[in-house]
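Hey all, sorry for the wall of text incoming. These are the two entities for the joint prediction.
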Amino acid sequence: MSTLEVITKLFYLLSAAFFIFGLKNLSSPRTARRGNLFAMIGMFIAVVVTLFDTQIISYTWIIVGLIIGGSIGAVAARTVQMTAMPQMVAIFNGFGGGASTLVALAEYNNILGNTALQMGNQDSITIAISIIIGTITFFGSFIAFGKLEGFVSGSPIVLPFHQGINALLFLAALVLAVLAVITPTQTWYFYGIVIAMAILGVTTVIPIGGADMPVVISLLNSYSGLAASATGFVLMNEVLIISGALVGASGLILTNIMCDAMNRSLTNVLFGAVGTDGGGGAAQDKTAVTEYTAEDAVILLENASKVIIVPGYGLAVAQAQHVLHEMSQMLIDQNVEVKYAIHPVAGRMPGHMNVLLAEANVPYDLLKDLDEINDEFQTADVALVVGANDVVNPAARTETDSPIYGMPIMNVDQADHVMIIKRSLSPGFAGVDNELFYYDKTMMLFGDAKDMVTEILNFLKES
Amino acid sequence: MTGTLLVALYIFVLAIFTGFEVITKVPPLLHTPLMSGANAISGITLVGAVLSTGMESPTVTTVLATAAVVFATINVVGGFLVTDRMLEMFKKEKE
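and here's what came out:
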């Protein structure tokens, strides 16, 4: 190993250390921004050191690629709406996976076209694995992006013999991979893997319902990391292996947390196609519940000493975060204790709701997660549910045949009063009716979340 | 199996464990920035893409690798910037 190579490897080690240190700092809101900066420095070091590599004979295309990619990335990051964060992360995951496939194919063609190089089993195996993971990540992420963005149907699309087709596609990719290792000069084996995994990427994500997207994004995040690791094995580059493994682990942890939050196994999420059957029993008639007005709500809120707000994704859809914050601030000024209870699946990706509320200037110390706050509902005068449904449905505790049975829910029914702002009685994502709406202590406020909260806010201002 | 490959496997497995250790401690509050930040880190493939693009190789390699540089750079630049944008918004209650 030449001196330059040794120096390069040492800098790669430094950049891996920066990544780990950065991720560690991401564990507290105080240090998180610094953590992200450390990770950026790590990346900067790795890329700059690579540019000094003696194998590089021309910089033209590198610069062109960096400028194009950098501009697209920067514009996307600056302009994306916080509500669109899940699809943004999904598509970024996809680009990461796509890059892995492309590097593997580039390396394959390099070894093939260069008479000085010999393609060993190690090369063909690692290239095949890198293509398999990278391609499914790219196409799977693209479909997830489409579902979240709305140009692919959010409800599950199930083909006849769907699981059989998926199994066959995966088998085909494996057979092609074996053939590719036996005869690595057969270019079409490798491109065949790309095609099989591309279709598989599409067919594995289309049957998954919109509500399960947090799991899918987490899993694809994990894949994008593993794809980077696989590329690291192709190029025998340690920094790729380490960084990819870190991201792979992170994605797996989040996938697990999301599954637990819905009391579903990963297999059930991936193959269950939940959301197809429209739910048991049509929603009951709206006349069965008493409808209240914003004025009624204000009387309760003003006399409360503790209010816990349970926001759901409907809040973000109605763009009501800012008025909600204004309203809660008004209550805090009137000496009401206000907290926000955030369910892990309240948004469209892990932690999404926290970001949406932080954007609306809600201080993060008011944001409490499920375990932290669930016992506090007993002492709350009002539980205010805005745009959430399944996460407060008591059926999850009792009805064994319900699709949401066993899912940990917010114990809003333990509060003295439950106030629910909702457009109608229509069931949530899981397609299940909610008996909470018919309780005596429940006050239904029908209407658009933003309009209703604004109305409450105006009454609060007047009084 | 060559020695280098074996060492690489060791590194991979140990890094997975390190990842589990470090990330388990991240609170739900920060899960979205964690994911987008981790996502940016997975853009490390950029290093491989840059090497493949710049070295002496068949045209097809240069073309594929240049596309990889574009993809990975979107991932890296976009990922880090958007994470920073989000983290900037997290503020503590004023006392």
